[in-house]
Amino acid sequence: MAEIIWSGNRDQYLVEIDQMHERRWRICFEQLGWDAEAAGVERGYDRDAFDTNDTLYIIQRHPSSGDIIASARLNPTLKPHMMSDVFPHFCDFPGGVPRAADIYEVSRLLFDIELAGDRDTFRRARATMRVALTEFCMRSGIRAFDFVVRDKLFTEMMRNLWSVQPLGSYHPDRKLPETYVAGLAAIDQAGLDRLRKQLGHDRPVLFYNGPVTDFILPRFAEAA
């Protein structure tokens, strides 16, 4: 089970949000070697200019300890977000940075392998987060999300996950032996069915603690 956090229930998740930011620091800057100064974050706590009141988070806890072992950040593309303010040059195909009410950006989709404890728990957490993200988008009227990932993960996404397309050329990282690409993932029932099959069941995995109409797009609110 995963949980969605937004402005309407954030005060119920203050401890979890702090833990998430600490986990993000450890994964991004200690394990992956990102540049904290360039990212503009405090040491030990990954919270940047794109963690705002409009931001939504999906978190997942360890089934035994309750510690957060996975999280993702979602931002509306009609407001400032990483693709528009940090990575616009990644979207060098015609059309540029996608911006629409029903397109969100997904960033900081991270998994804590060490806290997961074993490969089975990690794999299940990864599959659950992918399903939870898709469930949220479908219920909220979000038709697509954009993202920046390593080229190897982009290839996996194209083959096995969502229906995705590149938004630009592949860009090498000057400090890391990695190449990154921006993409757009379409959200539909076929993708959700495929991801649920990988997880091993078709039951909903995303828990909503609060009034969901707080973030559902207006034209979908009545149906929800």
Summary?
The protein has a single domain, classed as 3-Layer(aba) Sandwich (Aminopeptidase). Helix 5 runs antiparallel to helix 7. It has 8 helices and 9 strands.
CATH architecture: 3-Layer(aba) Sandwich
Count of individual helical segments: 8
Counted beta strands: 9
Could you please say which CATH topology applies here? Aminopeptidase
- Whole-number total of structural domains: 1
Low-confidence stretches: none
- Coarse shape: globular
Helix-strand sequence: EHHEEHEHHEHEEEHEH
**For the record, what is the CATH homologous superfamily label?**
Gcn5-related N-acetyltransferase (GNAT)
Between the first and last Cα atoms, what is the distance in angstroms?
Answer: 21 Å
Mean pLDDT: 88
What is the C-level CATH assignment? Alpha Beta
Strand content: 15-25%
The quaternary state of the protein chains shown equals: single chain
Helix content: 25-40%
The largest sheet, given as strand count, sense and whether it forms a barrel, is: 9 strands, mixed
Q: What Rg do the Cα atoms give? A: 17 Å
Sheet/helix structural class:
alpha+beta
List the helices and strands and how they pair.
Layout (H helix, E strand, L loop, with lengths): L1 E4 L8 H18 L4 H4 L16 E6 L6 E9 L5 H4 L17 E9 L1 H4 L2 H22 L3 E7 H10 L2 E4 L4 E2 L6 E8 L2 H11 L6 E3 L9 H4 L3
Name its key features.
single chain; 224 residues; alpha+beta; Aminopeptidase; 8 helices; 34% helix; 23% strand; globular
Descriptive overview:
The model has no long low-confidence stretch (mean pLDDT 88). The protein has helices spanning 14-31, 36-39, 82-85, 113-116, 119-140, 151-160, 189-199, 218-221, and strands at 2-5, 56-61, 68-76, 103-111, 144-150, 163-166, 171-172, 179-186, 206-208. The protein starts with a strand and ends with a helix. It is α+β, with helices and mostly antiparallel strands and 224 residues long. Helix 5 packs antiparallel against helix 7 (189-199). The chain has a single domain, classed as Aminopeptidase. The protein contains 8 helices and 9 strands. The protein is globular.
